[in-house]
Amino acid sequence: MISPPTPFAYTLTHKSTTSHAHTGILATPHGTVHTPAFIFCATRGAIKAVPTYRLKDLGVQIILANTYHLMLRPGADLIETAGGLHKFMGWDGPLLTDSGGYQIFAMGFGSVSKEIKRTANLPPKSPNPSPKSSSKSSSNSSPKSSPILPPALIKITEQGATFKSYIDGSKVFLSPEQAMHLQAKFSVDLAVQLDECTPYHASPSYTELAMERSLRWAHRSYQAYQKYTTATKQACYGVLQGGVYPHLRKRSAQTLLNMNFFSLAIGGSLGKTQAEMQRIVSLTTKLVYDHKKIKANPIPLHLLGIGDRSSIFYGVRAGIATFDCVAPTRMARHGHAIVPAALTPSGILNLNNARFRHDHTPLDPTTPTPHKTYPYSRAYLHHLIKAKEIAALTILSEHNIAQMTRMMNDIRTAIKTSDNAFNECEHFWCGSTVDNLQ
């Protein structure tokens, strides 16, 4: 008798002979995801400025919502009575929720949350160069005296995290078990364990303490996952922590790989520079791919919160299957349009600039497939931005989403073609740098 197909599975369809780059198919009850893929952030149940029904037309395969925000508003019970998050938001494709751990700790960390996900490289609110994080290293501080956990904002115990609601100031407690129960109520396809995120300036001793706690939370999260749902309805991800310390990353990876998570996500601080991030991603993915369990059964390894193009290409070479980041729509809200670096060295058009006032060329004349946003000229978008027309947000958000899905499709095609094709694809989209605004 033939067994029924597994509702959650990851199948490699092509592998590079010189790196861990690969294409694959992630199967879920709500459809498949062709990897490498970009997961767009619908943090509060919506992608900012873009109606849900438009997403598939823009090439979106999978989206991400946030447990932390949704538990506070509208609440898990309401979403459950609506039939789950898919029905509530009108999305019938694959859906992932993260646990809310990053958001909780970012509230406590304040500006140093930039250090956790390297958001300092995202376009700023003005066309000035991106500021460097003002936070100074506190490597000599102890866990007790460290400003890592401001007591007025967040309290971490073995049981979970207590924090203040940003909506009404009330105290909220979230445990690993509750995080999984909430995600079960959401009925999403892919759920992520609750973990403790530490920023770059956390001391080695505190980073180790937090990582060990996250591993214990991983065990509790998986037990709760088994209690509140089934493997036919939802798959669970563990989160690799350890900051910038190789020995901690190794311990985290080895422990999680010996558990039964469907897949893993790389979280926590990846460093303050591109080179440091690449080093941490490379050593972490190597730990995963060298494990005998993964050699026999590959997983769709996820990189949390990273979405700049150069990091995506590096991550793909390292074997990352999926990425998520708020960058595409955030950039749109700042008046920045994503274009290939082959078009302009930065890969970004800052449409706030006066030089676009008389530029009647399309946003991206290189696109091979016309899209509803592309006929709009740069001059028109510049006008909408200066006039503060809401349409600018939607047009640019849709444009940036379409560009990211186009880039990921180009990446998948290039991997299947040759290493040289992948290098050419990277040069087309990234050039030498994508950090400076035009």
Notes on the protein architecture:
The protein is an alpha/beta fold. The chain has two domains: about 10-130 and about 165-325, TIM Barrel; about 340-430, no CATH class. Helices cover about 40% and strands about 15% of the residues. It has 15 helices and 16 strands. It has helices spanning about 65-70, 75-80, 85-90, 100-110, 115, 175-185, 205-230, 245-255, 275-290, 290-295, 310-320, 325-335, 380-385, 390-415, 420-430; strands at about 10-15, 20-30, 30-35, 35-40, 65, 95-100, 155, 160-165, 170-175, 190, 235-240, 265, 300-305, 320-325, 335-340, 350. It has an eight-stranded parallel β-barrel, surrounded by four helices. The protein has a three-stranded antiparallel beta sheet with strand order 1-2-3. α12 (about 325-335) packs antiparallel against α14. The chain is globular, with a radius of gyration of 21 Å. The model is unreliable at about 120-145 and about 435-438 (pLDDT under 50).
Write the layout of secondary structure elements.
Layout: E1 9-15, E2 22-28, E3 31-35, E4 37-41, E5 63-66, H1 67-72, H2 76-81, H3 85-89, E6 95-98, H4 101-109, H5 113-117, E7 154-156, E8 161-164, E9 171-174, H6 176-186, E10 190-192, H7 204-228, E11 235-240, H8 246-257, E12 263-266, H9 274-289, H10 292-296, E13 302-303, H11 309-318, E14 322-325, H12 327-333, E15 336-338, E16 348-350, H13 378-386, H14 391-417, H15 419-430
Parallel strand pairs: 4-5, 4-14, 5-6, 6-10, 10-11, 11-12, 12-13, 13-14
Antiparallel strand pairs: 1-2, 2-3, 7-8, 8-9, 15-16
